Amino acid sequence: MAVSKEARDKTGGGKATGAASPNGQQPAAEQTPDLGGERLLELYRKMLLIRVFEEATQRAFRQGKIGGYLHVYIGQEAVATGFLDAYREGDKVITAYRDHAHALLLGSDPNAVMAELYGRGTGIVKGKGGSMHLFDVERGLMGGYGIVGGHIPLGVGMAYALRYEGTEGIVQLYLGDGAIHNGAYHEAANLAGLWGKSGMNPTLFIIENNQYGMGTSVERATAMTDLGAKFDSYGIEHEKVDGMDVAAVIACARRATARVRETGRPYAVEALTYRTAPHGAADIKESYRTREEINQWRQRDPLGLVEQRLLDSGAADEGRLGALRDEVKARVDEAVRFADESPEPPLDELHTDVYADVAAQQETEPTHA
Amino acid sequence: MAVSKEARDKTGGGKATGAASPNGQQPAAEQTPDLGGERLLELYRKMLLIRVFEEATQRAFRQGKIGGYLHVYIGQEAVATGFLDAYREGDKVITAYRDHAHALLLGSDPNAVMAELYGRGTGIVKGKGGSMHLFDVERGLMGGYGIVGGHIPLGVGMAYALRYEGTEGIVQLYLGDGAIHNGAYHEAANLAGLWGKSGMNPTLFIIENNQYGMGTSVERATAMTDLGAKFDSYGIEHEKVDGMDVAAVIACARRATARVRETGRPYAVEALTYRTAPHGAADIKESYRTREEINQWRQRDPLGLVEQRLLDSGAADEGRLGALRDEVKARVDEAVRFADESPEPPLDELHTDVYADVAAQQETEPTHA
Amino acid sequence: MPELTYRNALRAALTEEMARDESVVLLGEDIGVYGGTHLITQGLLDRFGAKRVIDTPIAEGGFTGAAIGMAMLGLRPVVEMMTWNFSFLASDQIIQNAAKLRYFSGGQVGVPIVIRGPNGGGVQLSAQHTHSLENLYGHFPGLKVVSPVTPYDVKGMMLTAIRDPDPVIFLEAGALYGTKGEVPEEEYTVPFGKARVAREGKDVTLISYGRQVNLLLRVAERLATEEDVQAEVIDLRSIRPFDEETIVASVKKTNRAVAVQEQWRFFGVASEVAAVIQERAFDYLDAPVERVSGAEVPAPYARNLEEAAFPSEQQVIDAAHRVLYREG
Amino acid sequence: MPELTYRNALRAALTEEMARDESVVLLGEDIGVYGGTHLITQGLLDRFGAKRVIDTPIAEGGFTGAAIGMAMLGLRPVVEMMTWNFSFLASDQIIQNAAKLRYFSGGQVGVPIVIRGPNGGGVQLSAQHTHSLENLYGHFPGLKVVSPVTPYDVKGMMLTAIRDPDPVIFLEAGALYGTKGEVPEEEYTVPFGKARVAREGKDVTLISYGRQVNLLLRVAERLATEEDVQAEVIDLRSIRPFDEETIVASVKKTNRAVAVQEQWRFFGVASEVAAVIQERAFDYLDAPVERVSGAEVPAPYARNLEEAAFPSEQQVIDAAHRVLYREG
Ligand SMILES: Cc1ncc(C[n+]2csc(CCOP(=O)(O)OP(=O)(O)O)c2C)c(N)n1
Ligand SMILES: Cc1ncc(C[n+]2csc(CCOP(=O)(O)OP(=O)(O)O)c2C)c(N)n1
Ligand SMILES: [Mg+2]
Ligand SMILES: [Mg+2]
Predict the structure, then answer these.
(1) Which of A123, A238, A348, B129 has the least C-beta neighbours within 10 A?
(2) Are A302 and A210 in contact (CB under 8 A)?
């Protein structure tokens, strides 16, 4: 668990409604809903699961148990936790490669998620996709994707399909601050705006603005740094939210999802947040930002803020929090054990899932291979 | 010559400063510069050359003398005429496939342009490119391009190179209303804005908003139809101009080019105009617009407006205009004759201009072919 | 049997399948109000409405990606690529998403999409508008790639394509939209992965696909009449899956083969054909497999240069002579 | 001779050429402040400044296109594709503009650009991050495509690439950035279009490029030690132009060939190699040319599946046995 007692104290109480982010961007002031002690505790448990899970994946990466790329969600927990709190059955969720949190929040089995990262046959996508490609279609998770921006058109198309089929579902479409400069974003957002005119595009765009695309700050990626306002070009309304404060995110998510569901029109929220971990588990160089900056953001760590509020309001004491931590840690330990003990995928899985029809696949296999 | 006496009369005098376009979009009011009779006559001659030239290409297309795609500039003459009036040696011009006017205005030999369309060896690019790919590098024409939006990044890169080399040149980058929805536009405009922050991007974006991308009106292509305002996303300032009024365009072009040249920062102008001809010479179906709409725009035909002004101001009488028409027609006839009489490219031209080094090319040629 | 043009056969397939299956939707530039730049979708907007016939902005990557998203939720989008030349802009969506989603989702997601449009050159559209991209898309597992040349096949394969649970790259012979052929009134489908023997013969096998098949038929006719050489003509039809069997069986009979492609030589379909034949009919071959390809240059505009850039009857006849050792 | 890693040899080439020629500029994602995700460009921002080492947003099509525009005015941009997997997004710019501009401008414009980055798989990056795109780009006239595997070649070919007046697709063996080899201190260049005989032998020719060359060298060693079979190993190095001569000369000597590629089988480089050999060494071939390719599946993540998806020593040895008729 990364949130120290000191950091928590420094946040200076639970005042988390619409606070300015350190870079000075100002989200719209938000009425913090009165979440109630048990509800807040439940949210805390979810965020804690993400945090502890991610720390375990980082360890496993260092141990060589997880290969390829690994991108963790540490520092950003409040964003997906808050938005997915407004998830309703029938909704669809799509995001990029920083996708573990989204799976866990939608209720995917942590064992299967961890096993995927370990490349095991028991993984959520059978060990075929790895960290960047978590899917849990039954729970609405339509995938993690590795090409920056490439999933945005998919989400917009899904939103169309949901209305075409006459459902009430919406799409929660997560994208990074770096992705917004890609043409895929522009073309898809324009389609969303256009299709939304006839109520055929219930897409909620959620910009996870964690201030950097890999090592490139927002300021170094565009001359116009108000990312939410980039949706003006498509006739899509937007707002900002303090992405470190889960209560603010929840309030925003409620309104925004309701609005999108009702109108069938897209809407965009820029969540101001921060990735306190390196971009990827292998990217230890952080020449692009300072220790001070990281520490400054850590003072508004999303878990720290909730802990403080729980303690201040008396909803929980240190004992209760400690018990919760132990419980979550045990759950993650179990996931690690499960992954570690799971077998690799059987070799014949190499050739399945290329086409629906395995025969079609075989016809293209080399004669001798 | 397409502008009838009647149409001219209907324009109701020379009042052409910042008039609203028929679709109601309102360009910024513009002080019409006092161009003076001879100067106006010279502009008229240029626009007339384009018009008569384009009409000749349409005839040649119908006769089967021009193949492939052919996109004419009829109705839009004031735009390129006005902007290229502000061209200075060392500037670069890049546009899409609707490029004949740009070549003629930059002083390319009409014979060579027509011969290109005829696919002759005397063509401006040796008969290799055709209508969509006119180049006259010596005169700053860096090409016509066939992939919608694909030339926009090239223009932005050129602007960078001009400043990198320490020149005063700027890039006039023309794009259609349809191109603006393409990702190439978005990525390039963002780069322009970003590089412009350090004065490294003297790009003048000129949106030739002729209301349609092929058969798709602006309203059917995007929910946010103020195309100039799409540059807000990149920190690029912009304005609109009445693209039917060459005097308004010239005034705008002067200011805009001076500003871009001085600052090294990009700027965008949306020229509201109309293509009275079909999209391409082969596209005779016009199910996407009405006769009335075309006629309404024809009343503000850019040539008609100038003719009226010339007559009203006494700068020219019908006799003078008639002589000018004859002169221009003779020039175009000569181009047609030249093209018609020119030989096809020699067959060995097939294999040149693939690589700088012809030997490199030969190595890739099939053994028997 | 009634005769239909290639264009009308294609439209018939789309119409019938849209009538039969509500999940079929069309997307593309100017396919609706404008009626389709090649008139393939003419009348469909009126019949099926704007929710099913979706005009898009000029954003090939965006709308192809959106269509993939629709397919992931069970729709069956048919995307018109106005011409395949614009598909580089959608290649990331096609290759990175459509082709691989089933795999990297561990089988949780399928992408029943068809992407169709005219492929190939021959009408003086010059460098940026002249490509034959069968090898490009055919390289990627997860895609199916077909290239029908007759009205019969284009209709039957379009029905197969729309019903296929996986992404299909449907390369139409754009230069032949107006050509006629017999098309039954009854419903039928043409399977993927089966080449067609377009003409039987015993002396030499000529292999191609798309509009070059017609060239081969002309050549075969000339060889038969002028030289009494009986050429077998194979129309691959399906590029992926690739029908090795039909090719190999024919060459085992004729012992000689010429592979012809409009596209460029390197890493083209003809390279694969030659590689397969030498692999699987090595002992039957009386001469090396010959290839005839487009010239190694971007497509030129001038009519005479363009003509010289594509395989000609004479080039194919010369190649046939070489494999028959009838040179000179 | 001093030893350098592949990475450092590459950086040395960039550094020397930037020092020599002011028109050389670099563009790419995180090549400056971050130092390059693969550290190729580390230190270059400090040395050459932000005008020449240009960090870009995540917009492969946009910045590649902009670099092409720069090249059209005489700069010599070297673009880093963070990995080639992202290049589909730039493929329209590369294929429609860079490759063809000289042609459709009638020779008025050249595009002296280099686009470089790691190609190929092997480090569990799974389906969207594992491609070998040599055949894709190698198909298009107007491009040059190279794929060096030794530190010596990567430096010498990078210098050739930057000085080349035409666009060069520079495919690096990403999995080998850390491997060492001899690199002279004096300036030298390695020409395009010449394959390298990486090991001489008389019994069978093994042909590949990129990191698979190392696999072939291991196989050749095993064949020599274990079976006294002397395999000749050919490293193509240059995919376009393609060196037929070296291949054909070798096969005329050995009479047997195995072509190996990490990429997928269909329309791959090995298809071309097989087609060329049977075309030009038909009478010398004692067995059909064998191909060993990657499995026909999107790249899987799990280590064991990924391993099974790429050519193995055993597969190559088996193929060699088949062409030597030593089966079983
Ligand atoms: C098209 C593409 N280009 C480059 C990359 C390499 N890359 C992976 S993540 C990343 C940064 C993305 O930043 P952002 O969208 O802000 O997401 P974050 O990592 O901050 O969550 C880059 C450049 C990629 N995966 N895809
Ligand atoms: C990427 C791409 N998609 C589609 C086309 C086909 N196409 C040619 S012109 C055109 C319309 C472009 O409209 P606009 O940019 O407004 O230019 P205009 O023709 O009005 O001058 C289309 C769709 C193309 N050439 N390139
Ligand atoms: Mg980010
Ligand atoms: Mg237009």
Answers:
(1) A348
(2) no
A224 vs B187, B222, B234: nearest CB: B234
First-to-last alpha carbon distance for chain D, in angstroms, is 44
For A260-274, what is each residue's pLDDT tens digit? Answer: 999 999 999 999 999
Provide φ and ψ at C83, rounded to 5°.
-145, 155
List pLDDT tens digits, range D279-297. 999 999 999 999 999 999 9
Q: pLDDT by residue (tens digit) across C33-78?
A: 999 999 999 999 999 999 999 999 999 999 999 999 999 999 999 9
pLDDT digits (tens, 9 = 90+) for D203-246: 999 999 999 999 999 999 999 999 999 999 999 999 999 999 99
What mean pLDDT do residues A180-199 have? 98
How far is B239 from B252, CA to CA, in rounded Å?
A: 9
- Torsion from C-alpha of C251, C253, C258, C262, nearest 10 degrees: -70
B357 pLDDT tier (thresholds 50, 70, 90): confident
CA distances from A320 to A11, A45, A311 (A): 21, 11, 10
Pairing of strands C204-208, C196-199: unpaired
pLDDT digits (tens, 9 = 90+) for A110-163: 999 999 999 999 999 999 999 999 999 999 999 999 999 999 999 999 999 999
- Quick check: CB of D153 below 6 Å from ligand 1? no
CATH number of the domain residue B224 falls in: 3.40.50.970
Q: What is the three-class DSSP state of A113?
A: helix
Note the pLDDT of residue A363: 53
**Residue showing tokens 């090319």:** B361
Return d(Cα D21, Cα D17) in angstroms, integer.
Answer: 6
Domain span at B165: 37-341
Pick from B145, B215, B344: which is nearest to C34 by CB?
A: B215
Active-site residue C279, yes or no? Answer: no
* Ligand approaching nearest to the C-alpha of B187: 1
Query: What residues are paired with C290 via a beta bridge?
Result: C258
Do the domain assignments include residue B359?
A: no
Q: How confident is the model at residue D327 (pLDDT cuts 50, 70, 90)?
A: confident
Domain count, chain A: 1
Rounded (to 5) percent helix, strand, coil in chain C: 40, 20, 40
ipTM reported for the complex, 2 dp: 0.96
Residue B365 confidence class, pLDDT cut points 50, 70, 90: low
Residue A264, sorted as left (phi over 0), alpha (psi -120 to 50) or beta, turns out to be left
Question: What strands, in cross-sheet order, belong to the sheet with B203-209?
Answer: B141-144, B92-95, B171-176, B203-209, B267-272, B238-242
Helix (H, G, I), strand (E, B) or coil at A304: helix
Could you give all domains of chain C from N- to C-terminal order, each with its CATH number?
A: 3-182 (3.40.50.970), 196-323 (3.40.50.920)
DSSP annotation of B181 reads G
Residues of D acting as catalytic residues = 60, 129
Sequence-ordered list of residues with C-beta below 8 angstroms from that of C97, at least 6 positions apart, any chain: A145, A147, A150, A151, A154, C65, C68, C111
> Which helix (H) or strand (E) segment is A241 a member of?
strand A238-242
Q: Would the CB of A179 count as within 6 Å of ligand 1? A: yes
Q: Kindly give the residue spans of alpha helices, DSSP state H, lying in chain D.
A: 6-20, 44-48, 60-72, 91, 101-104, 134-138, 151-163, 212-227, 244-254, 269-280, 303-309, 313-323
A91 part of a folded domain: yes
Report residues whose beta carbon is within 6 angstroms of any ligand 2 atom. B 98, 146-148, 176-179, 208, 210, 212-214, 275, 279; C 29, 58, 60, 82, 86, 89
> What's the CA gap between B201 and C246, in Å, rounded?
58
Establish if A362 belongs to a structural domain. Answer: no
Closest CA to B39 of B242, B313, B274: B313
Comparing CA positions, the residue from B297, B348, B276, B292 lying closest to residue B2 is B276
Residue B275 placed within a domain: yes
Contact state of A364 with C61 under an 8 Å Cβ cutoff: no
CA A85, CA A102: separation in Å to the nearest integer? 11
